[in-house]
Amino acid sequence: MQPIRSVLAAAVVLALAGVAIAQTGYTPGPHNITLPSDWQQRFIRYATVDNASRKIIRHIYVNPEAFAAARPGQPLPDGTLIIMADTRARLGADGAPLLDQQGRFIPEPGWIAMGVQEKRAGWGVGYGPEKRNGEWEYARFNGDGTRSTASVEACFTCHLQTRAREDFAFNFWDYVQTRK
Ligand code: HEC
Description:
This protein is α+β, with helices and mostly antiparallel strands. The chain has a single domain (27-178), classed as Chalcone isomerase (3-Layer(bba) Sandwich). 28% of the residues lie in helices and 21% in strands. The chain has five helices and five strands; from the N terminus they run ααββαβββαα. It has a five-stranded antiparallel beta sheet with strand order 1-2-3-4-5. The chain is globular, with a radius of gyration of 21 Å. Bound molecules: heme C (HEC).
């Protein structure tokens, strides 16, 4: 091929690649995650964690599509959206959480905060290796579902350092490995 032709061909390839990147519209950050308006009706609560040190209960939900598609030993499905919604625990006169007949904390009504992680093909591009959690993004929401402006840096750090081999998830990964 004549040199001028190959230069032109390369320019066309680069231009097309530029268009492809522009079309995905992805820029890293918590803004990629939106809280689905119907999550409380539609999502599956697969775990509830009593957190004694913070005197809260973490109600953990996943979208039904990912719940059905997840397989042991496999990365979690594209489109997995996990919502960890916290409530306060009801406290006794001594300030300690009251327990129900199963020994579990008793939730006070109303969410106090939500931590969310979502995984989509093409996400994570633009984070360095010290931060990137595969294709996951993290976001925080207030109890009323509005976006919180608090930092998500620690989310990336802790999940990367502790759970890189479990697709950056904690109890949803464990749940999938052991469910019948
Ligand atoms: C210091 C470590 C640490 C930090 C920081 C952290 N997490 Fe986690 N995360 C955990 C642990 C441990 C669990 C398992 C549930 C539990 O024990 O509370 C978890 C569970 C979750 C879950 C439920 C999914 C699953 O598979 O367990 C979501 C969603 C989540 N974290 C999102 C976040 C978000 C969003 C942030 C930042 C605002 C964050 N996490 C910060 C340690 C951390």
